[in-house]
Write a structure and sequence with these properties.
The complex is a heterodimer of chains A (286) and B (785). Chain A has 286 residues and is an alpha+beta fold. Chain A has 3 domains: 46 residues, Uridine Diphospho-n-acetylenolpyruvylglucosamine Reductase, domain 2; 109 residues, Uridine Diphospho-n-acetylenolpyruvylglucosamine Reductase, domain 3 (2-Layer Sandwich); 108 residues, Enolase-like, domain 1 (2-Layer Sandwich). Chain A contains 12 helices and 14 strands. In chain A, strand 13 and strand 14 form a beta hairpin. Chain B is 29% helix and 23% strand. In chain B, strands 3-5-1-13-10-11-12 form a 7-stranded mixed beta sheet, sandwiched between helices. Among the domains of chain B are: 154 residues, Aldehyde Oxidoreductase, domain 4, CATH 3.30.365.10; 329 residues, Aldehyde Oxidoreductase, domain 4, CATH 3.30.365.10. By secondary structure, chain B is of the alpha+beta class. Classes of the chains: A alpha+beta (286), B alpha+beta (785).
Chain lengths: 286, 785
């Protein structure tokens, strides 16, 4: 509960933050801190410096003009309470409501969660299912990283050590799109033992035009359940097609086991939660 | 006896405003000039020989004042006192039935000497100017270990050839308690119904909100030490620390300031109490150590951890013929709970007539943290086994569990009943609590609803537990009532409340029994300088024993006040009554006298010589026996077969804790007790890995239940007074924990009946329930039921 010694920086611009990171290769960016600080207190993480983004301007806010842009330092509470998101992308406020507890929601941030890449986080799966991308700013300017390429392994992303994740971009939903996130909550940590995010678009002919299903909690990083997706495309979104997709949800995935939930149990839960997420996504189509 | 409105009234807790506003003092709030900070180097191995400790790098770190190992400390601090280490529930252990050959009491040093026996054992202490510096230096203390073979399972530890923790304990057996009464063989031979199960009461952590904490400072006034410690029994800690340091008891003052929860795991002086005290005394400098949450999981004693093989034999109509229990108690690495299995044995008959009993128990050392008292200490285990056994018998005989309980209840008794296990219960009326619970919960209606839902493929479970337990452990408790010259009242007691609320309860009693002003009453406890000798707060003894002592003092003060009032009002003392807070002449209208006026006279110079000066009394109460509260709990759960999740839909308790002084406080105790008992049934478990490493070492892994896990609790009571104290109160601190684990477990197993499941171990986590369903044929099997 006593972290190693570290330096503390509180820049006011992204450029300044990037500069500090360049000078301190072992520094870590501090967003909400709800994952990083406990790890430091347990001495599992010992960054040489923290670069606190809380005073950097322009990193918060939600824009729903066409595609959705969310500032990296936007808190879960802001996502949870956003009327614009409830209309445009209901899966986002709904997921924010299920992260941790109200205290965590008040301080934890979307950008922090994605950059931390906890294998049991909720928003990693949601970002994959929504085909989100993030904007990363480094010394040589900025680049866009699709969520697909962001998560490399557990607690590992493709962000360079001197890059700051500043924004999350989510393409606007097209046509009739239903979406839902369902998770089996760990009774102690509140993290996902298994979480499934589903975003399904139905074409004019009533069949599934696109399905993006992503899994968290069960694998070493948030991952798309491509077999389940393929089982849906071209089929009407029905109890039968949902059951077929759920049955293959764990196909091709390497599942984790721990002393709370074995890999075998997680494999089973994956089917159940894929079905539940798809059923609710289907219901939300109206 | 009860004269006016405070006893029995819904009085708000006097202690809450300061706790809620954070203005009170816990150990960590103490900041003394020059205070040094202590960090502990802990063993990463479950069993190893220490071959060398290199302190040089740590000593060179900034701010480091000293690095002390076991050999250093032994020069000025003795081992943990044997009696203290045996701790347990505070009950005197009964060694009559012990097999002497199997027992030795191992010597335990505050810092390991030679050998470490569990992951987390204290090996060295780093003293530094700040805790951060101490923690940095801990990483630089180089300890060389030779690993020894370890054993973490008690059954394996008992086997011949298992790694041995102590030379004096062959097969690692550290405690035995057996009781064999009646013809058990005949009871089982030819019994129409026999049921058996291997039942696990898993290892738990107490998880007090405030972890343990110790601060100590040289005290120029007593030329010794003052020690602030987060404990349930400051007098015990004072005695132990003084003995270990070779100081007269008079030179150690022990203070338990606000204590943020104990639940049994803060009974007795721990290693760190000795380490910090010794450092402060030796260095003549204040020192402090606050346990981190990680340390708390590793090095604060755990609770429960028994395996029980239970067999019950009965007639076809459910009448019990005999009961067999073989209990293996994991003691962990050192003696803190050698009396736990005995307490289980003493309660092994529960509320029932058991014609023949065979109880055998083995306390076994393993390379894990010591196991000691935790809310209920041995009795929750007994209630769990007995209440499971009754349901197993009902299942096997095809009877309703209510019927089997009623068939076997001990008939109501008001003047003692000795059970087959040899325990003398005080008073009881078990069917009264059961009947009230069934009526309140609408048991028949619930069974109908269960059948309706089952037809729809939904699985409701209804679980009952009728428990009885032991409260009010002795050997004595003390009280001082001091009426100040202006009539304000100060109370002192040897108990050490840490959340129980006796500041409120005792003020209620003082208001009613001597006319004290409830708002102005101050209750001092937890400081050995100003309180009479005591045994602290544990084993639901605060009110039954501490309150019993208080009542003796209050009665004495009331009598003396009446004599003074009679003299001043010129009336016969028999005609003085206390009503509405005033001493007045019975039948004579008028004001009478207030306690303030009487106190003024008692401290003044105008009373005749036969009146003693002052208005104060110190008294001790030694109860002749323990009290036995009881009750029936009903849990209603729904099991979701597709994931194995369990939802607690309804929880109704009928507890009989004797006379209730403070209904609000009793309700609070029941709520907290239920949360911990249901936590054992559904969520909590301390788990060690194959190499003796703690797997459930953070609150991210160890699941304490949150508010979302519970429906609104429906709490009810019957009142069967005890004759063992002046209040008629029995105790409520542990009762709800004891009733709720079996009620909840029985409910889940009842829900799983369509799959032919008759037993499942707690905690009933989703995967465990799901697996049981799969083994029972999965959802199709149930649908075909």
């Amino acid at each position: 509960m006593f972290p190693n010694q570290f330096d503390y920086h509180r820049p006011t611009t992204v450029a300044e933050a990037v500069g500090v990171l360049q000078q301190n290769p072992d520094a870590k960016v501090l967003a909400g801190g709800h994952s990083l600080l406990p790890a430091m207190k347990l001495r599992l993480a010992a960054p040489s410096a923290l670069v606190d983004l809380s005073k950097v301007e322009g990193l918060t806010g939600i824009s729903t003009n066409g595609s959705v842009v969310i500032g990296a330092m936007t808190t879960y509470a802001e996502l949870r309470d956003s009327a614009a998101l409830k209309a445009a992308l209901p899966i986002v406020p709904e997921t924010a409501y299920h992260v941790g507890d109200p205290q965590v929601q008040a301080v934890g941030t979307l950008g922090g969660s994605l950059a931390h890449a906890d294998p049991s986080a909720d928003f990693t799966a949601v970002a994959l299912a929504l085909d989100a991308s993030v904007k990363a700013v480094g010394a040589d300017g900025d680049r866009t990283i699709p969520a697909e390429e962001l998560f490399v392994d557990l607690f590992t992303t493709s962000l360079a050590p001197d890059e700051v994740l500043t924004e999350i971009h989510i393409p606007a939903a097209t046509g009739r799109t239903g979406m839902a996130y369902e998770k089996f909550r760990h009774p102690a940590s509140g993290y996902a033992v298994v979480g499934v995010a589903a975003v399904v678009s139905v074409g004019v002919d009533g069949t599934v035009a696109q399905a993006r299903i992503a899994v968290t909690g069960a694998t070493s990083k948030a991952t798309r359940a491509t077999a389940a997706e393929q089982a849906l495309v071209g089929k009407p979104l029905s109890a039968d097609s949902i059951a077929a997709a759920a049955a293959v949800a764990n196909q091709g995935l390497e599942l984790n086991g721990d002393h709370y939930a074995s890999a075998e149990y997680r494999a089973h839960l994956l089917g159940v939660y894929t079905r539940r997420a798809l059923e609710r996504a289907a219901a939300s189509l109206g | 006896m009860v004269l006016s409105r405070y006893v029995g009234a819904e009085v708000r807790r006097k202690e809450d405003p300061r706790l809620i506003t954070g203005t009170s003092m816990y150990v960590d709030d103490l900041r003394l000039p020059g205070m040094a900070h202590v960090g502990i180097v802990r063993s990463p191995y479950p069993h190893a020989r220490i071959t060398g400790i290199d302190k040089s790098a740590a000593l060179a770190m900034p701010g480091v004042l000293a690095v002390i190992d076991g050999e250093d400390l032994a020069e000025f601090c003795g081992p943990l006192e044997a009696g203290n280490a045996e701790g347990g529930s505070g009950e005197q252990a009964d060694y009559e039935h012990l097999e002497q050959g199997a027992l030795g009491t191992p010597q335990v040093w505050p810092l390991a000497r030679g050998v470490v026996r569990y992951v987390g054992e204290a090996v060295a202490a780093v003293v530094a100017e700040s805790r951060y510096q101490a923690e940095d230096a801990i990483e630089e203390v180089v300890v060389d270990y030779d690993e020894l073979p370890n054993v973490t399972s008690p059954e394996e530890a008992m086997a011949d050839g298992a790694p041995r923790l102590y030379e004096a304990n062959p097969n690692n057996v550290g405690a035995r308690w057996d009781r064999i009464v009646g013809d058990v063989g005949a009871a089982f031979t030819g019994a129409p119904v026999v049921a058996r199960a291997r039942i696990r009461s898993q290892r738990l952590s107490g998880v007090p909100m405030e972890t343990r904490a110790v601060a100590a400072a040289p005290d120029p006034l007593n030329q010794g030490l003052t020690v602030w410690t987060s404990t349930q029994a400051p007098h015990w800690n004072r005695n132990s620390i003084a003995e270990a340091l070779g100081l007269p008891t008079t030179r150690v003052r022990c203070i338990a300031p606000e204590v943020g929860g104990g639940f049994g795991v803060k009974i007795g002086a721990y290693q760190e109490d000795f380490i910090v005290s010794a450092i402060a005394y030796r260095m003549q400098r204040p020192a402090k150590w606050i346990e981190t949450r990680s340390e708390s999981f590793l090095a604060t004693h755990h609770g429960r951890d028994q395996w029980a093989d239970v067999e019950i034999a009965g007639e076809a109509d459910g009448t019990i013929r005999g009961l067999k229990m073989r209990v293996v108690q994991d003691l962990g690495s050192h003696p803190k709970g050698t009396d736990l299995a005995e307490l289980t044995g003493r309660m092994s008959c529960g509320c029932y007539e058991v014609p023949a009993l065979e109880f055998k128990s083995y306390g076994v050392y393993t390379n894990t943290m010591a196991v000691g008292a935790y809310r209920g200490a041995g009795r929750p285990e007994a209630a769990y086994y007995v209440e499971r056994a009754i349901d197993l018998l009902a299942d096997a005989a095809g009877l309703d569990p209510v019927e089997v309980r009623r068939k076997n209840f001990i008939a109501p008794f008001a003047a003692g009943h000795v059970t087959t296990a040899g325990e003398k219960y005080d008073t009881g009326d078990y069917d009264k609590a059961l009947s009230r619970a069934l009526e309140l919960v609408d048991y028949a209606g619930l069974r109908r609803r269960q059948a309706e839902l089952r037809a729809q493929g939904r699985y409701l479970g209804i679980g009952l537990a009728s428990y009885v337990e032991i409260c009010g452990f002795g050997p004595y408790e003390s009280a001082t009532v001091r009426v100040e010259p202006n009539g304000d009242v100060t109370l002192y007691s040897g108990i050490s409340p840490h959340g129980q609320g006796q500041e409120t309860t005792f003020a209620q009693l003082a208001a009613d029994h001597i006319g004290a002003d409830f708002e102005k009453v101050i209750f001092n406890h937890g400081d050995t300088l100003n309180t009479p000798q005591g045994n602290g707060t544990m084993g639901s003894r605060g009110l039954a024993v501490g309150g019993g002592a208080l009542m003796i003092s209050l009665n004495k003060i009331q009598n003396r006040a009446k004599q003074i009032a009679a003299h001043l009002l010129e009336a016969a003392v028999e005609d003085i009554e206390l009503g509405d807070g005033r001493y007045r002449v019975r039948g004579v209208p008028g004001e009478g006298m207030s306690l303030a006026e009487i106190a003024d006279a008692s401290y003044g110079g105008d009373l005749p010589q036969e009146f003693e000066a002052g208005l104060e009394s110190t008294d001790y109460f030694r109860p002749e026996d323990e009290t036995f509260p009881f009750g029936t709990h009903v849990a209603v759960v729904e099991v979701f077969p597709d994931t194995g999740e369990v939802k607690l839909n309804r929880y109704l308790s009928v507890d009989d804790c004797g006379v209730i002084i403070s209904p609000l406080l009793v309700r609070g105790q029941v709520h907290g007790g239920l949360a911990q008992g249901i936590g054992q049934a559904l969520f909590e478990e301390i788990t060690y890995g194959e190499n003796g490493e703690l797997l459930s070492g953070t609150l991210n892994d160890y699941a304490i239940p949150r508010a979302w896990a519970f429906p609104p609790f429906e709490t009810h009571h019957t009142e069967t007074p005890t004759y063992l104290n002046l209040l008629g109160a029995k105790g409520i601190g542990e009762a709800a924990t004891i009733g709720s684990t079996p009620a909840t477990a029985n409910a889940v197993i009842d829900a799983l009946e369509p799959w032919g499941i008759t037993h499942l171990d707690v905690p009933m986590t989703a995967e465990k329930v799901w697996r049981a369903i799969q083994e029972g044929g999965g959802t199709q099997a149930a649908a075909a039921d």
